[in-house]
Write a structure and sequence with these properties.
heterodimer, A: mainly beta, Immunoglobulin-like, 5-stranded antiparallel beta sheet, 5-stranded mixed beta sheet, B: mainly beta, 4-stranded antiparallel beta sheet, 11 strands, 57% strand, globular
Amino acid sequence: SQQGEEDPQALSIQEGENATMNCSYKTSINNLQWYRQNSGRGLVHLILIRSNEREKHSGRLRVTLDTSKKSSSLLITASRAADTASYFCVPTSGTYKYIFGTGTRLKVLA
Amino acid sequence: DVKVTQSSRYLVKRTGEKVFLECVQDMDHENMFWYRQDPGLGLRLIYFSYDVKMKEKGDIPEGYSVSREKKERFSLILESASTNQTSMYLCASSPGRFQETQYFGPGTRLLVL
C-alpha cells in the first residue's frame, strides 16, 4: 500500500471558480480513489478511477489519471460554498490497507 | 445506501479507563476498519478485519485491541486509555474485494483526561 501526496495543501477560491487539486504516488496501482471530508457529512467517497482509465466524470467532478507520470488530478467545476472540505486521494494496489494522507484543504469563498 | 454508525459522536474518559468504541454497518460488508485522525498526520490505520473473528494490525495498533464477533459489528478497545489517545476515531467498511470503496461512519471524538 502507498500514500498519495496531495498538492496544494490548501486552496482558496471564489464561488463559481474551478478548483484543481493534484495527487502523486510512487508505485503502480490498480485504481485511485478520491474522498472528501467536511464537518457536516464526514468522510465520503467521491470517485474511483481504474488504472486503465484516463478520465472520469461525476457531476461537477472530473478526475484524470496519468499512470506514466504516476499522478492524478481532481477538478471541481463551478465550485460552491458546500464544496469547502478536505480532499484525499488514495492509490490502491491489491491490499486491504488504504493509506490516507493529509489531503488538500479547499475553501470556497461566497 | 450503505450506513456505518458509530456508538458515540463525543466521548470523554479518564486516563486508565477501558474504552469501547462500537461500529456497525448494515450492508453485509466483509471488511471493516478503524482509523484515527489527528491534525497534520492524516488518517492512520489502527486495525482492520476481513472476516468475522479475523483481524490484522494496521500502522498503529499499540494500546488498542479489536473484536469482531459478528459480521456487522467491529469494536475498538482502548485497554487503558491515555491522553495521547485523544483523537477522532473513524470506522469504515468495504464490500469484500481489494480496491473497493470504503464507507465511513461519522466518527467519534474521544477526549482522554
